[in-house]
Design brief:
- This protein has 283 residues and is an alpha/beta fold.
- Strands 1-2-3-4-5-6-7-8 form an eight-stranded parallel β-sheet.
- Helix 2 packs across helix 11.
- It is globular.
- The termini are close together.
Length: 283
């Protein structure tokens, strides 16, 4: 088994003629211009950090629904990488488009409802127009990542209950407010998701940073997450290069923040959960 699997790095091409930017919502993210990383650079960073494999997440704030670069990039390193792309789930041809990208090599999908370039709008999540695409995900055995904030958690819950055979990964844990510290009452809407077993949580630099803000501490937050959800529903993602620092530095911070978690649980968080969600990342 690989010891480290990253389920949230990004790649940006240095060839804008071949892969022209066309950001979702019309505004390109600052990080994709200030800290772009080609797939070759990502592989170098993974080697230096001791990261064995990765599920590379398409940059919606660079390429919109054009998954060409993330698919081509990951296909160039099939023993190390898989591609997680994005399609317009509300489009009438969403299911056909998903099949097309899967035939090209796509191994998972992501819905981006907002973030650094736009406030969250969860209205597209639990929209009946998206249901055919979700049904296909279940048929194909594909995982869906969702980027949203606490405002979107009710819609995520509805989707998870309607399509229980589609694993859902919440990017950045759904961005909970944990600064109030234990018992983390401000993040109760996140912890309320625990009974919905198809929902998984992605531990990224955002929560690593938030775990040291206000009254939060890693020693109280991460054991609570493990106790509530179980390590088998938690997976590490670097968010490289969106988050500053080398991949090795980002990984070292995550290891430090999770130092109090048992070795078995850390094994799940840093590799085995990812390999459950994306079987192609297994050895």
């Amino acid at each position: 088994m690989a010891s480290y699997v990253d389920i949230h790095p990004h790649v940006i091409s240095d060839d804008e003629n071949r892969y022209p930017p066309a950001p979702l919502f019309g505004k390109r993210s600052d990080w994709s211009q200030e800290r772009p990383s080609t797939v070759a650079t990502l592989i170098e960073q993974m080697d230096a950090a001791g990261v064995d494999k990765a599920a590379v997440v398409h940059s919606s704030t660079t390429y919109g629904f054009d998954n060409n670069y993330v698919v081509d990039a990951c296909n160039a390193y099939p023993d190390r990488l898989i591609a997680v792309g994005s399609v317009d789930m509300l489009a009438t041809d969403a299911a056909e488009t998903i099949r097309m990208w899967v035939d090209r090599g796509l191994a998972g999908l992501r819905v981006f409802t907002g973030g650094s370039t736009k406030d969250f709008d969860p209205s597209e999540l639990d929209d009946p127009r998206a249901y055919p695409g979700w049904e296909l995900l279940g048929d194909l055995g594909l995982t869906m990542c969702i980027q949203t904030g606490p405002v979107g958690l009710p819609a995520v819950t509805s989707l998870a209950k309607r399509f229980p055979n589609v694993p859902i990964i919440l990017d950045h844990l759904g961005r909970p407010d944990v600064t109030d510290g234990p018992p983390y009452a401000a993040a109760q809407s996140l912890f309320d998701l625990a009974p919905v077993e198809s929902i998984y949580l992605k531990l990224t630099p955002r929560i690593m940073g938030d775990s040291t803000k206000g009254a939060a501490t890693p020693e109280t937050l991460f054991p609570k997450l493990v106790e509530t959800f179980g390590a088998k529903r938690l997976a590490w993602g670097s968010n490289y290069p969106t988050s500053p620092g080398t991949l090795a530095e980002i990984k070292a911070t995550a290891e430090s923040r999770l130092a109090m978690v048992s070795p078995e649980d850390r094994e799940w968080i840093f590799a085995k959960t990812a390999q459950t969600l994306y079987p192609r990342l297994s050895d």
